[in-house]
Amino acid sequence: MHTIEYDVQRPNRDVVSAFEEIPSTIVSDVTGNVGLTMDSGINPAYEGAETAGTAITVKAAPGDNLIIHKAITMAEPGDILVIDADGFTETGHLGELMCKSCQVNGIAGIVIDGSVRDRQALAEMEFPVYARGTHPRGPLKQDPGSINVSVSCGGVAVEPGDVIVGDDDGIAVAPRENAAEILERSREKLDSEDAVREELVEGEYLFELNGYDRLFEELEVVGPEDSIQ
């Protein structure tokens, strides 16, 4: 069944914009490290790509981009297209021209579980794109698809309106319904790391600061002296 939903509930725009200052690693940390961070196969198309925005989700047939063209016309400024192409990497589902259309219309980026092409042009444009691979072959335009439905991208379930945060480390997802809470916890985490960084400059070790020494003592570690009978 193919579905297009036109109404998307988005978090407060100020909340979404604030995520531009939050690294994906911090979002991953405060959401528990698992379940909301896309797998390592989803990488930026060029070094230095950064973005944050609200998800417009797309379910596309592998090797076909007709529904992606439609989604571009529906996205609002600040949105990020999150495309589930079943991880198919033998076709470049989008490239320079589609990304230029996105860029001039204020779309904040694209994340696709599939391949793209024209990587050098995307770098020159400085348009944030994250993909599972690159491939020169162009896509078909013969299969329908769905927009603004639940999708799986990089091993993560993404809903329309979720906040997507991307940088050189990868992609993290903040669910729409608790994006404000995740933002606040992320800010607290950044402040905490600033304080720790000052102690590290003074020569302290994370091993002691974070209590890892106590954890270590609780483990059964055998040293050379323990092997002497």
Describe the fold and architecture:
By secondary structure, this protein is an alpha/beta fold. It has 2 domains: 13-177, 3-Layer(bba) Sandwich (Glucose Oxidase, domain 1); 186-227, no CATH class. It contains 8 helices and 10 strands. The protein has helices spanning 13-18, 24-30, 66-74, 96-104, 119-125, 179-201, 206-209, 212-218; strands spanning 43-44, 51-59, 79-92, 109-116, 129-134, 146-147, 151-153, 156-158, 163-167, 170-174. Strands 1, 2, 3, 4, 5, 6, 9 and 10 form an 8-stranded mixed β-sheet that branches. Strands 7-8 form a two-stranded antiparallel ribbon. Helix 2 crosses helix 6. The model has no long low-confidence stretch (mean pLDDT 94).
Average of the residue pLDDT scores: 94
Annotated CATH topology of the largest domain: Glucose Oxidase, domain 1
Number of helices: 8
- In one word, what is the shape? elongated
Q: At the first level of CATH, what is the class of the largest domain? A: Alpha Beta
> How many runs of DSSP E, i.e. beta strands?
10
What Rg is obtained from the alpha carbons, in whole angstroms? 21 Å
Stretches where pLDDT is under 50 for at least 5 consecutive residues are: none
The CATH homologous superfamily of the largest domain corresponds to Ribonuclease E inhibitor RraA/RraA-like
What is the straight-line distance between the termini? 71 Å
Largest sheet: 8 strands, mixed
How many distinct domains? 2
What is the CATH architecture annotation of the largest domain?
3-Layer(bba) Sandwich
Q: Helical percent range?
A: 25-40%
Query: Which H/E pattern describes the elements?
Result: HHEEHEHEHEEEEEEHHH
Roughly what fraction of the amino acids lie in strands? 15-25%
Class by SSE composition: alpha/beta
